[in-house]
Structure formats: C-alpha cells, structure tokens
Design a protein that fits this description.
Length: about 230
C-alpha cells in the first residue's frame, strides 16, 4: 500500500483529504505545520507528499528545499492558494513535481496523485537500467547515481526523469514544451525557464565540462538533444 503524507495547517482540509485518499486505498499520515511535516517525511519516507505552501514554523517552499537538499526524491505535490506564476515556478524549481491551486477538485487532485505516482521511483523500465556518462553512472531501476569512486550523488526525482527521457530519445531534438509535457505532465506549462534551470543543474552533475557539454546539447530556438 502506497503511503501519502499530507502537510497542511488547515486541519479540516487535511482530515478531509485523508478520508478521501484512504477511500482510494492509500495509507495516509498528516502533519499540521512545516517543521513536523519535515520530521515525518524523513522518518516515514512516504511514497508521495501533498505539501501546503503557507504554513507556520516552515513554509512549504522551505520544506521542499530542505528535502531535496538532503537527497530525498519522493514526489511532492504543492497545494496552495498562491497562484502567481512566480510562485508556481519557484515551487517547481525547488523540486516539486506538481502544483495544485486552491480551491481544487478532489477528483482532479486524486488524478494528479495517481499520475505522479505512476512516474515515481520504483516503476521500472526494462529497456533502460544503468547508463554510464563517464563522469557518473545512473541506475534508472533504483534511481541512484554514482561517481567514479562509487560514492552516491544526490539527484532529484525530476532530474532522474529528465535524464531518463533523454536516454529514451537519444539523438532526437526535444523541445522545452515536450519536456514539460512528458516529464512534468502539465497541460498548462509554467515556463520554459523551469526546463533550462534543470538542464543547467543536470549538466553540472553528468558533464565533465558543463560549459562545453557532450551529452545534453542545446538546439537554439528549439530545446535540447541528448547524445550518448
């Protein structure tokens, strides 16, 4: 049974979400402020986190940032009343996997949860297992990256997904919109800057010389191309 952590300071909303998700067959735990939510995320290792932005003690942005900086890759769906594009972009760039504004449809939220979990670590792709980029090796079956000495490298879930999509489409020019659609799963794209910022971070991790990449090439005016 997949476990979902709800971090939401509106207790009635959190309990309502919990009841609906348990009816869908999920195991659900809750936290009502950012600090407790971070503690529960680290201790419980849920399969997915539903994370409010505006909370006491720690904001959702801070919780997301800290989890990703510690190397936790579980999917995060941000749930918030803030709908400005800059807030959506910030959440995505910090490592969130989806962004649902309040008020929301429970049916839509559940559909998004199922979509994100389908793409989450542990869903195996038999045609791609381990890729050697020279600087690092990436195990797409277990979502782990290693350097040449065998030490583990921190990569976010979204970075793994982008890299996996590139390897599945080697040699083909991929637009930013296609990356947003296939990797983020958005019908309304937040901004192409989200893709560009993730590519910059990926190059630093897999390229020997990130300023002169050999694997992830820029196709000006369109997007990117991955070369093995």
């Amino acid at each position: 049974m997949e476990k979902i952590l709800i971090i939401e300071d509106e207790i009635n909303l959190a309990e309502g979400l919990k009841d609906n998700l348990e009816l869908e067959g999920y195991s659900v735990i809750t936290a009502f402020d950012g600090e407790k939510g971070l503690e529960r995320a680290v201790a419980e290792l849920p399969n997915l986190i539903i994370l409010d932005v505006m909370m006491p003690k720690k904001s959702g942005f801070d919780v997301c940032r800290e989890l990703r900086s510690r190397g936790f890759t579980m999917p995060i769906i941000m749930l918030t009343a803030r709908t400005e594009e800059v807030d959506r972009v910030l959440g995505l760039e910090l490592g969130a996997d989806d962004y649902v504004p309040k008020p929301f449809s429970m049916r839509e939220l559940i559909a998004r949860i199922k979509a994100v979990l389908r793409r989450a670590p542990g869903k195996k792709d038999k045609d791609i297992i381990i890729y050697d980029f020279g600087k690092i090796k990436v195990d797409f079956e277990h979502y782990i990256a290693y350097d040449q000495s065998g030490a583990q490298i921190d990569m976010t879930f979204k970075e793994f997904e982008i890299l996996k999509f590139f390897t599945q489409n080697s040699g083909r020019t991929i637009s930013r919109d296609e990356l947003l659609d296939k990797v983020w799963g958005y019908e309304i794209y937040p901004t192409s800057r989200t893709v560009d910022n993730h590519i910059v971070k990926l190059r630093k991790k897999i390229e020997t010389d990130p300023e002169n990449p050999k694997h992830i090439l820029t196709v000006y005016g369109i997007g990117y191309k991955y070369i093995e």
